[in-house]
Amino acid sequence: MKVPKLAGTGVAVITPFKEDGTVDYDGLAAIIEFLIDSKIDFLVALGTTGESVTLTAAEKKAVFAAFVSTVNGRVPLVMGLGGNNTQALVAEFSSIDTTGYTAILSVTPYYNRPSQEGLVQHYLALDAVTPLPLIMYNVPGRTGVNMSSATTLRIAKTAKRIVGIKDASGDLIQGKEIIDSCPEGFLVFSGDDETAISLTLLGGVGVISVAAGGFPKTFRAGIEAARKQDKPIAQQIDNKIAPVIKLLFQEGNPAGIKAVSSQLKLCSDAVRLPLVKASAALHTALKPYVAQLD
Fold first, then answer.
1. Residue 23 forms part of a structural domain
2. Cβ contacts of 56 within 8 Å, gap of 6 or more
3. Handedness of CA 29, 30, 31, 32 (dihedral sign)
4. How many CA atoms lie within 13 A of 77 on its CB side?
5. Is residue 267 a part of any domain in this protein?
6. 152 with 136: CB under 8 angstroms?
7. Is 111 a catalytic residue?
8. CA-to-CA distance for 122 and 87, rounded, in angstroms?
9. I want to staple 107 with a disulfide (CB 3.0 to 4.6 A). Which of 7, 69, 82, 225 is the partner?
10. Closest CA to 188 of 143, 158, 155, 142
11. How many separate domains does the chain show?
């Protein structure tokens, strides 16, 4: 399968909600326009940051369609589609409408805590049915299991339609091992904002970011400097954004980035239970960065 032309700064887009808990499609359109105007390279619909696990099947279908209609081909779209029931996910992959999307991002199974062999077999099962190029997503802080570099490389060298990984382990040694030994053209994205610029300097193709959803120009400038191996500029920007990244995750994701989005007047800061809104203290701490960065 042809590797999609995905690189640079992608954003894991929030799903905005109205105060009554319903999906805010006008807010979603505003967020998408804001990110495209800020020259973001691609968008991810219904990743972890999109609170996909709290949406109904009908809502997911509507949100995926809203991305396609609003973006209208202006930037590539990646569809978030993961789960911890391999059989059910295979069925979903076989029936999902992927019109308008470039690739699928699929997280490692969570809660089950599969072995490394289980991770291999899970992704090979998806590889056999995926209608689009597939990017794996390793986020051990959420799933409870780290997909090792050896496992990632085994899949990368065996699978036919798996074309990359979003590595949110935050482990630069693991990331470098994958970059150094993966097949030519295999896409290694950072999924950890704190180490994204560092991983890109090590040879990664870019990031799928939370922070770039609120500070797109600044974060993109850092990633572009890293891709050009301009270390002084990349590190300068990394130092500038490091404090706000810590704040964004202080009360969990996406509460922090939704607080920023509300301060940018793109949407409300509403989340769905079991998550709760960012505290007033966090809102106050974020305000100077919203005023200074873009």
1. yes
2. none
3. positive
4. 22
5. no
6. yes
7. no
8. 9
9. 82
10. 155
11. 1
Q: What are the pLDDT tens digits along the chain (294 aa)?
A: 677 789 999 999 999 999 999 999 999 999 999 999 999 999 999 999 999 999 999 999 999 999 999 999 999 999 999 999 999 999 999 999 999 999 999 999 999 999 999 999 999 999 999 999 999 999 999 999 999 999 999 999 999 999 999 999 999 999 999 999 999 999 999 999 999 999 999 999 999 999 999 999 999 999 999 999 999 999 999 999 999 999 999 999 999 999 999 999 999 999 999 999 999 999 999 999 999 988
Set 123, 166, 258, 289: catalytic member? 166
Please identify which residue in the block is written with the tokens 């870019």: 206
Establish whether 166 is a catalytic residue: yes
Q: What is the CATH number of the domain that holds 117?
A: 3.20.20.70
State the amino acid at position 161 in one-letter form.
Answer: R
Burial of 164 (0-12, 13-18, 19+ CB in 10 A): buried
Query: What is the total residue count of the chain?
Result: 294
> Is 246 domain-assigned?
no
**Strand ranges for 2-86 from DSSP E:** 8-12, 42-45, 77-80
| pTM score, whole prediction | 0.97
For helices 149-158 and 172-181, what crossing angle results, to 10°?
A: 30
Residue 165's DSSP bridge partners are 136, 188
Say which of 137, 228, 258, 287 is annotated catalytic: 137
Q: How far apart are CA 38 and CA 7, in angstroms?
A: 16
Longest C-alpha distance within the chain, in Å? 49
- Amino acid identity, position 94: S
Chain-centre distance of CA 98, in angstroms? Answer: 18
Domain that holds residue 53: 8-234
Look up tokens 């409300």; give the residue.
Answer: 268
